[in-house]
Structures
1.
Amino acid sequence: MTATRKAGEPILAVSDVTKRFGGLLAVDRATFAVAHGSITALIGPNGAGKTTLLDLVSGYDRPDFGAVRFEGRRVDGLASYRVARRGVVRTFQLTRVFAAMSVRDNMMLGAQRHPGEGLHRLAFSRAAVRRAEAAARERAERLLRAFALDAKASEYAGALSGGQRKLLEFARALMAKPRLVLLDEPMAGVNRALGAKLLDEVERLRREEGMTFLFIEHDMDIVMQRADRVVVMAEGQVVAEGPPEFIRRDQRVIDAYLGRRGNAA
Amino acid sequence: MSFFDLDFWVGVGIVAGIYGIFTLGLQLNVGFTGLINLGQAGFMCVGAYAMGMLVVDAGWPLGLAFPAAIVIAVAAGALVGLASLRLRADYFGIVTIAFSEIVRYVFQNAAFAGGNQGIIGYDAEWRAFQSWASERLAAIGLGEAAEVPLLVAVWATLLLCLAALRALQLSPWGRVLKAIREDEDAAAALGKNVFAFKLQSLGIAAALATIAGFFLAMNVTYLYPSEFDPSFTFFGYAVLILGGFASYGGVVVGAVLLCALTEGLRFLDLPLSAGQAGSLRFIIVGLILICLSMFRPQGLLGSKAEMQLRA
């Protein structure tokens, strides 16, 4: 399935998105775009509204106002599973693996349009189910090898370390062959060597499969090295957007985010 | 009556089989989908009454009324599901038990369902078959217990349902159900239509409840609302806990053990009144369940590793 891709049109366009929780304006007229095939970082101090924004993009919450367009079509207000089927797959800040299922089964669940997940196809097109299952298994084994989880394939996902769970969640998202991957702090709790591996894999997927990544990250070194665009949020608003070297020098960003850190140091 | 009375134990076997089929549906919901269905007796009531009324009032043959009753019960399951599956787990439980009680009180009070008199006379075809089968059994020396054909039918059905559910659980479909049990938000993030899967799970449970209700109706000879009160569902949960969470085999083992235990304890010869002896039986069963949850919390066939991971 290829996207209806017009020249210069961003893969994700967030415009004037607003979300209020009671008296708290969590996201305030956020507007930014994510370019096709980019690795875009979403940064900002705690409470800036980054995770809420990710929820609004992925259908886990509805904006009060504004629009989210993926490949030119509105996705705000769609159920989360429908957003995922369009090609937007996310991970969670607090890692969510299916604990009492094997690592391999966790991966298999990432497969999309699996005929074996429909009762009627299960009864009447057994050959198609077997084929899909074999194909999914092969892709799962390949991804597990890429993330050094192949030795753990038969173990319960709940028995993995925190870092390994992060990797599993990311690998599982990739099973779905998404076009846009939303990662909520993928590096948190992952040791540097594994983290570097994960980021290398992100760059390879962008290069070889044309995937686009939007990720929330707190480690500024990683953001500066790996992202080709940065979106900065503070107090619910997008305060700056641009390439890392530009963001680093932006006074609003320094005030809102880096400055605070700089003062503390 | 002696402990070795064959008719008695055939009767226990039938009841155990009925609870087994009934609880397989609960296990699908509770153990494999994470749905706290407290209204299973209500689905059984709808199915059994639909069957009885189609035969008695509409004059349908049993062979047609039975599949029609399954369709009606599944529709009831879908209706309850559409109204309540989007609720949080505990509220879903409340809605299902409310449904179960509404059904029971309606049938108890509605003239079309026979009210407190219930429904009688739907089992002529079954009785005819049963006496035909009994004669054949007597010819080969198995004629002592009259209800053997029902016992065979119940257990053949139970084992068939067990095999089918096990196959489903090993399929990609069953894998999605388990993922929903573990974390439905994460399942949705992978494109799974959580609501549709829950609805299917509930529909299949309602069908199993109807099959159990069908055999219950044949076993008791007339349908009466209080047969379907929520304690039937709770006894099903006791079977489920005894046999083990997320284990279909455990349901069969649990149903046999719990029924054999509650009925076998009738033979305790104590200087007590009938009422006291009846209460004592349940005290003993309760104590055994408490000991089980202390020393084997995963149930007889449940997986301890899985249980700890879910905690």
2.
Amino acid sequence: MAVLLNNYYLQVATFVGVNALLGLSVYLVLSTGQLTLGNAGFMALGAYTAALLATKAGAPVWITLPAAALVPAIVAIPLGYASLRLRGVYLAIATLGFTETVRVLFQNWEFAGGALGIKNIPSLGRMVQNGLKAAGITPPAGLSHAQLANLVVMLFVLLVLGLALAFVYRQAAGRVGRAYAAIRIDEIAAEAMGINITYYKVLAFVQGAVLAGLAGGLVAHINFSVSPAEFAFSRAVEMLTLVVVGGSTTPLGPVLGAALLIGLSEGLRDFSLFGARLSDYRLILYGFLLMVVVALRPQGLLTFAPRRKGARA
Amino acid sequence: MLLQQILNGITQGGTYALVALGYTLIFGVLEIINMAHGELFMIGAMVGWALVTLFGWSLVPALLGGMVGAALLGVVLEFTALRPLRRQGGTNLSPLISTIGLGMVVQNLMVRATNGQPLSFRVPLSEGVIRLGPLQMTTAQLVVLSVSIFLMVALQWTLSRTRLGRAVRAVSENPETAALLGVNVSAVILATVMLAAALGGAAGVLVGLSFVSVSATMGLPYGLKGLAVIILGGLGNVKGAVAGGLIIGVLEALTVAYGGAGYKDAVAFGFLFLMLLLRPQGLFGISAAAVRRS
């Protein structure tokens, strides 16, 4: 038990959970047929919101995390209305522009630490650990306090992920989900059926921003530091990779993608090639996977239902 | 002072325009965005660096070598990331994703090969300065500007006057009809991708020349700025790409000159963002309705 729950495994599992949330945020937008590269920007907004509230105002986690979800949502509403008139490659480039602009703004904002970012954000693990000690709880079965705290953090992240998944599944079965699917399959037909496509596209965009922001807030509290460089183009691409590889037609796709890709790159850590650790080749591997999956299995590894003729993500 | 900044901006903008022309050529023919274009640019710069530094070639052959190197990578791009998807026939978002993938592979292989360090790129002509009244220009700037202009004119000539150019325009208008009229569409697409890559490679060598260094990560910022430029100028529009490049170059130079150096990288996208909201067809593009139809 104590061996299985070592701190490294717990951290990897936590990391998978956060990345699955990020993947899910891209999935939501993709489920209306729109490709966004802007969720890295929303993640940055969430991470900085949580970090600033916690370090400058001393706000507790139950304020910083909801705020991390709320601020990106507020930004996403006007942004969505403005940019979702654009489609396909135009939208992808515009949202990429948003991500880059957010990064440059944070980089130049001295109050938020400029290029170095914010350090010493209260960490979730430490908070839980202190809480446990204060409550006089001794960890069972030979676990250390740190292990128990990491376990709690992991369970918390997985709980958030579970709630998000439950929400996405319930939504998919209802009016909103059917509207998303209709827009994805044929926008013009959906509009002709009386679906307010702008409303639903913006809704999906905002939902994506909420999840990305929340994941950003979690990352800030788990890594106890944030910096603008974390939210660059490569982050947007990594988020997209999770969904493309895992599967873009079912909410479990991004979860599988996160587990697979994080698992793979962590698993490669112990091996080396040409004097470099194999995990240093992670991005090369991601790139290959993107190319291979798009060419051979365009809907990702995990697909939902038998593929209908003419329906495509 | 203002004139000097504008001149600097135009020189920089010339390289942006070259990068943007590569995007716009491919978009014009295939209606896709080649997200690996920044890496073609970087490979051109790297090949140019290797020819000058390791083999002692002079600038012009090195520039041509960089273009050939990038064009060869363009062939790889066509056969690995573009052609397989064409056969399968998806949306134009699939090639966007697969070219991102190829770009990641190329960039990170180069990062490994160079240990992530920038390489110093010295050509004999780097030192001189030319004065023109109150204005001054380094020889390197002059070379960059004149080569950029030469390549733009050469491209315009190729597209409008040669057999290849006519085939490219035919395929861009309608691939099926072009094929019926005896144009080898696959060959034209391959040639277009190579041409676009060569322009990107040339821009890479020129940028390496003006910054006296090359690195494995130099492609990304130029790739992103090129994207901003083509949207600004109108996707698939050659004149628009040139004008957009010059506008972004000058705006950046002015931003840096008037105290906003830190915001330099936000200029292109900030401007692009406004543009997309106000006029998604770009400065010289066709109407929004036509964009939607395409």
